[in-house]
């Protein structure tokens, strides 16, 4: 399949006739997968180092795009999710696809539309900008006329932007994992794990700034070393160490 060919499985693929024993494959402990289900290989680029880092997810063509959005790992989201920043948007095949699962989610497409109204010269770069956004929970890749190797967009936590590429589309076969619960399937596991700068053994879980006990700033600690360095024998934070900042540390992708 060439990179510029349009692909929309929604009009080409039909399940086998009702009653056919091969209509679905059922594996113990998993949801059934319909034969002739399509699989999409989606590459998600790093927001700031897109030429060097990426992650690959294998996505069922029939699954809602919210599943893909939730499966994308981003350190920015890990830091900011506790502040209620759960809004997400995709721009795929000339459609703004917005996460509307929560009534408080922000429709990021409104900001884009505002800019396009103000600067008409930008409109050719965003065909479909004047069409209403669609729900991410009710849209799947197989329903979209996607193109291979064409840049699409995923936006979350305000202004964190990831470029998406559909790298391959194919039908499932019996060598694939047959449980729907396993998808989207992350194919790359390349987290860079920062080690604790004290023991140099365990993975860092905390990062401090302005820490008087640190040998570097910022300073990375595992849970054990952080506790030993900052708390007394009674489990109380030592009073001389109150004026510093500490945050959970999440690995970069």
Quick one: CATH superfamily of the largest domain?
Answer: MM3350-like
Q: What coarse outline follows from CA principal-axis ratios?
A: globular
User: What percent of residues adopt helix (DSSP H or I)?
Assistant: 10-25%
How many separate helices? 4
Largest sheet: 8 strands, mixed
In the CATH hierarchy, the third-tier topology of the largest domain is known as Structural Genomics Hypothetical 15.5 Kd Protein In mrcA-pckA Intergenic Region, Chain A
Main CATH class of the largest domain:
Alpha Beta
Mean pLDDT: 80
How would you describe what is shown here?
The protein is an alpha+beta fold and 253 residues long. The chain has 2 domains: 152 residues, MM3350-like (Structural Genomics Hypothetical 15.5 Kd Protein In mrcA-pckA Intergenic Region, Chain A); 63 residues. The protein has 4 helices and 15 strands. It has an 8-stranded mixed β-sheet, covered by helices on one side. It has a 3-stranded antiparallel β-sheet with strand order 14-13-15. The two termini are 30 Å apart. The N terminus is likely disordered. It comes from Aphanomyces invadans. Its main location: nucleus. Belongs to the SNAPC3/SRD2 family.
Outline the fold blueprint.
Elements: E1 6-7, E2 24-25, E3 33-34, E4 38-45, E5 54-60, H1 65-71, H2 75-80, E6 88-92, E7 95-98, H3 109-118, E8 134-135, E9 146-147, E10 152-156, E11 160-171, E12 185-186, E13 206-209, E14 219-221, H4 223-230, E15 245-248
Parallel strand pairs: 7-8
Antiparallel strand pairs: 1-9, 2-3, 4-5, 4-11, 5-12, 6-7, 6-10, 10-11, 13-14, 13-15
């Amino acid at each position: 399949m060439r990179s510029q060919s349009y692909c929309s499985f929604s009009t080409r693929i039909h399940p086998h006739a009702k009653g056919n024993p091969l209509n679905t494959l059922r594996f113990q402990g998993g949801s059934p997968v319909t034969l002739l289900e399509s699989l999409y290989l989606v590459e998600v680029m790093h927001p700031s180092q897109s030429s060097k880092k990426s992650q690959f997810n294998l996505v069922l063509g029939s699954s809602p795009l919210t599943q893909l959005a939730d499966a994308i790992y981003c350190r920015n989201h890990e830091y900011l999710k506790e502040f209620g920043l759960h809004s997400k948007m995709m721009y795929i095949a000339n459609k703004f696809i917005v996460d509307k699962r929560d009534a408080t989610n922000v429709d990021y497409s409104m900001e884009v539309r505002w800019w396009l109204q103000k600067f008409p010269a930008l409109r050719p770069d965003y065909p479909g900008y004047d069409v209403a956004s669609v729900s991410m929970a009710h849209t799947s890749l197989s329903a979209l006329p996607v193109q291979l190797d064409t840049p699409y967009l995923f936006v979350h936590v305000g202004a964190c932007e990831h470029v998406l590429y559909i790298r391959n589309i194919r039908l499932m076969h019996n060598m694939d994992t047959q449980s729907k619960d396993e998808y989207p399937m992350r194919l790359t596991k390349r987290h860079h794990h920062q080690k604790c700068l004290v023991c140099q053994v365990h993975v860092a879980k905390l990062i401090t700034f302005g820490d008087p006990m640190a040998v570097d700033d910022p300073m990375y600690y595992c849970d054990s070393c952080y506790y030993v360095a900052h708390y007394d024998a009674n489990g109380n934070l030592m009073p001389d160490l109150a004026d510093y900042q500490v945050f959970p540390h999440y690995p970069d992708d």
